[in-house]
């Protein structure tokens, strides 16, 4: 039911998610849905909390499966990028992100995920001499920026664009460390 709600939001935007539309999509009566969620805001929140749960699981799986190296950090973020698909689904997800930003509980989930992701990325630089504290958050920010820049000119697959961008970031980071250590 919550997956159907999320799919409706992706297709029609958050405004298109109604109890009647969800009823048609999942087969439960609108009154049952109202009884369960009470308000549209709570329905949206429940669907997005489930989406955050899925993102948490994917992040944990990728963190466990990728090496603790800078290349592993790139692989982790490229793996997360594959979930975006094409430009239309990415744009739809940005519309849904607005709902995450409006709701304090969902914002807190985003902040918690940022911390987990940043820590997982940071772990991939522990073997790098003189690794900068905060590289995990910097790399996550670079990744988010790469996704946004890709969206303006999506001629190549998002995963290719992200990989190239993150590899350039690591190269620049390494060059900056060498300059400061000389």
UniProtKB/TrEMBL annotation:
This is TetR family transcriptional regulator. The keyword Transferase does not apply. Residues 18-37 bind DNA. It comes from Sinorhizobium americanum. Coiled coil: none annotated. Gene3D superfamilies: Tetracycline Repressor, domain 2. Pfam families: TetR_N. InterPro entries: Homeodomain-like_sf, HTH_TetR. Keywords: DNA-binding. Residues 1-55 form the HTH tetR-type domain. The keyword Endoplasmic reticulum does not apply. One of its GO terms (molecular function) is DNA binding.
């Amino acid at each position: 039911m919550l997956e159907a709600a999320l799919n409706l939001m992706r297709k029609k935007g958050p405004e298109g998610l109604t109890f009647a539309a969800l009823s048609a999509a999942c087969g439960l009566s609108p009154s049952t849905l109202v009884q369960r969620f009470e308000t549209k805001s709570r329905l949206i929140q429940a669907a997005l909390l489930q989406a955050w749960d899925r993102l948490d699981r994917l992040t944990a799986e990728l963190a466990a499966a990728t090496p603790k190296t800078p290349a592993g950090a790139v692989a982790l973020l490229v793996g997360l990028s594959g979930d975006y698909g094409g430009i239309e689904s990415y744009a739809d997800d940005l519309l849904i992100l607005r709902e995450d930003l409006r709701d304090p509980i969902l914002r807190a989930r985003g902040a918690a995920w940022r911390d987990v992701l940043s820590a997982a990325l940071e772990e991939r630089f522990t073997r790098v001499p003189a690794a900068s504290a905060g590289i995990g958050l910097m790399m996550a920010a670079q990744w988010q920026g790469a996704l946004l820049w890709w969206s303006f000119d999506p001629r190549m697959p998002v995963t290719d664009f992200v990989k190239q961008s993150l590899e350039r970031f690591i190269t620049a980071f390494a060059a900056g460390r060498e300059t400061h250590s000389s």
